[in-house]
Design a protein that fits this description.
Helices cover 35% and strands 24% of the residues. By secondary structure, the chain is an alpha/beta fold. Helix 13 packs antiparallel against helix 14 and helix 15 packs across helix 19. The structure holds 5-amino-5-deoxy-1-O-phosphono-D-mannitol. 5-amino-5-deoxy-1-O-phosphono-D-mannitol binds next to helix 9 and helix 16.
Length: 608
């Protein structure tokens, strides 16, 4: 949600900043801007639209001379996307420039006070308050002005700041929004996320809440909000540099779908020892695990859908009650939690504001929180009591695929582990489940091999108005995710329903030719789902079924069948999602949509 890049060093800053912003465009892409100190003044360029507009305007940054600057790609919160509302924002004398990710919650009273003191605002943003407030407190010492501002503002922020009177330094600060700084041989960097600077350095520092960083071309210093100097240790990033590149694929989403077998192998392998599951990161003994009475899974979007699957699998195998909450609801419904409750928060980015708030709420109430997180060193990973990393590597496409698949297998491992320590399954059953887990990567590979077939089918639906997804039990969980995948990237309206629920209202939307995707992977429910298919077909629906090879009756019941390899029914979501991802992807491609950057969305949602 908004991307920030800053640079100070011996090279021309603007091309480096634009290059970094291009790697962060998944965080927001409705407008972009850059401010460069040119030796005398701060030169600023802003443009509504994709980053390419700004790149064209500045010839890839070549027209902006100078060795230090800050840049921003925006996902609008306060004020519509426009040149004026784009960042950076400056004080009236144009000597201070700020880029911001997050929300200043008390910007209205602050704006009023500043207006009363004669400040004039040009934009509708909350961020402009920061530029004027910095101006108000600035008496020649940037650090002093910044810390004074931090004491006044409420909300969440990651900031990059430039002072024209201090041409040898840029500043970075954050609270509840991601921000890292990096030290390279040619200078120092600020970035919202690692991919922006990976090309230039692998030595990064994670900035903690309310820390201020002063960056110069040869190094940086860290300060507390009370201006005391802090010592920090760098972290070396060991990602493959190609991980954040498209590597010949048309879209990041397609590449990431193809990375799913590896992602699953990387996530399960370190935790499978012969016929046992060993998750050291839990920091819980078998006895402590066995004593868990209730699980609360909290997450947003696809991570929430993974949680819904987790509920079915954990309740089924380990017989522990599991509640699943959308994170934005959890905090405000005053959930009833009891002694022995364990909270699991799931997040790819590890920065989702609502999920982070749910984590904090749970910890404040005294409950232990386990994070299932993809981004190493992210806020959720650091603040959770224990963190089970999903080793999916950087995920760039806004629509998640590989990180979601990794979340599923993390939950399966947890379910099997809990079932073993609680004695709800015996060793033989555990060994069989583990064998099936190990087979998932190859089975997914096989399904990905069907991409042309799914593409041909998807091409028939590029003009679709509504598409429905139905399933029972665990197949309902995957219907939710299949429907989200389709609608978020193709803009085709879609809903997911528990198959038996459709006739309680939604069936009135079925018309001649409406596509209904029916997922049916649970042998005990084959016949029930077929009955629901018969109901929608009687109203004119065309039915695509995603089912197991053994379900021969589906051939006749549906109009088009995709068969899945045989696995344990508890793991079937990991296979069923593949044709659904491919279907959503190819409908979007067929419609000419910007698959990796769907309209109105951003990859990491760091505002409530
Ligand atoms: O980073 P997180 O996993 O916490 O993100 C949660 C959701 O914002 C995310 O899954 C979103 O729904 C994706 N666009 C789904 O593809």
């Amino acid at each position: 949600m908004c991307g920030i890049v800053g640079y100070i060093g011996s090279r021309q800053a603007a091309p480096i900043i634009l290059d970094g912003l291009a790697k962060l465009e998944y965080r927001g892409y409705d407008s972009a801007g850059i401010a460069i100190y040119d030796g005398e003044n701060i030169e600023m360029r802003k443009a509504v639209g994709r980053l390419s507009v700004l790149e064209n305007l500045t010839h890839g940054g070549e027209t902006m001379k100078g060795y230090m600057g800050i840049g921003h790609t925006r996902w609008a919160t306060h004020g519509a996307p426009s040149d004026t509302n784009s960042h950076p924002h400056m004080n009236t004398s144009e000597t201070i420039a700020v880029v911001h990710n997050g929300i200043i919650e008390n910007y209205i009273p602050l704006k009023k006070k500043l207006t009363d003191r004669g400040y004039t605002f040009l934009s509708e943003t909350d961020t402009e308050v920061l530029a004027h407030l910095l101006d108000y407190y600035y008496k020649g010492n940037p650090l002093e002005a910044i810390t004074k501002v931090l004491h006044r503002v409420e909300g969440s922020y990651a900031l990059g700041i430039l002072f024209a009177e201090h041409p040898d330094e840029i500043y970075a600060v954050r609270k509840d929004c991601p921000l890292i700084v990096g030290a390279g041989s040619d200078g120092c960097f600020i970035a919202s996320d690692v991919p922006a600077i990976l090309k230039y350095t692998r030595t990064v520092y994670y900035v903690e809440n309310q820390e201020v960083v002063k960056l110069g071309k040869d190094g940086m210093q860290f300060y507390s909000v009370d201006e005391e100097e802090i010592t920090k240790e760098p972290v070396t990033i060991d990602w493959d540099a190609n991980a954040a590149e498209k590597a010949g694929y048309e879209h990041f989403m397609l590449k990431e779908m193809y990375e799913q077998p590896k992602t699953i192998t990387d996530t399960i392998s370190p935790r499978l020892q012969d016929d046992r599951i060993v998750i050291e990161e839990l920091h819980m003994t078998d006895e402590e695990l066995a004593a868990v009475k209730r699980l609360h899974i909290v997450a947003c979007g696809s991570a929430y859908h993974a949680g819904v699957t987790g509920k079915y699998v954990i309740e089924g195998l380990a017989r522990i009650p599991v509640e699943v909450d959308v994170a934005s609801e959890f905090r405000y419904r005053n959930p009833i939690m009891e002694e022995g409750s364990l909270v699991i928060v799931i997040s790819q980015s590890g920065e989702t504001a609502d999920t982070l708030a749910a984590l904090r709420e749970s910890r404040d109430r005294g409950y232990k929180v386990l994070g299932i997180v993809n981004v190493v060193g992210s806020s959720i990973a650091r603040e959770a009591d224990a963190c089970l990393y999903t080793w999916a590597g950087p995920e760039i496409a806004v629509a998640t695929t590989k990180a979601y698949s990794a979340q599923l297998v993390a939950l399966y491992m947890l379910a099997v582990k809990l079932a073993q320590v609680r004695g709800t399954i015996d060793d033989a059953a555990a060994a069989e489940l583990i064998r099936d887990l190990r087979r998932l990567p190859d089975q997914i590979e096989l399904l990905l091999g069907q991409k042309e077939k799914i593409q041909r089918f998807a091409n028939r639906y590029v003009g679709a108005k509504d598409i429905f997804f139905i399933g029972r039990g665990i197949d309902y969980a995957i219907s939710l995710e299949g429907s989200l995948k389709l609608k978020e990237i193709s803009y085709v309206h879609s809903e997911a329903y528990a198959a038996g629920e459709l006739k309680h209202g939604t069936i009135s939307l079925i018309e001649d030719g409406t596509l209904v995707v029916a997922v049916s992977t649970q042998p005990a429910l084959y016949q029930k789902t077929i009955s629901n298919i018969v109901e929608v077909k009687a109203r004119g629906a065309f039915v695509m079924a995603v089912t197991n090879e053994e379900n021969k009756a589906m051939e006749k019941a549906s109009d088009y069948c995709v068969y899945l390899p045989e696995t344990n029914p508890y793991f079937s979501n990991s296979l069923a999602i593949i044709p659904l991802q491919l279907f959503g992807y190819y409908v979007a491609v067929g419609k000419g949509c910007d698959v990796d950057k769907p309209r109105n969305l951003a990859k990491s949602v760091t505002v409530e």
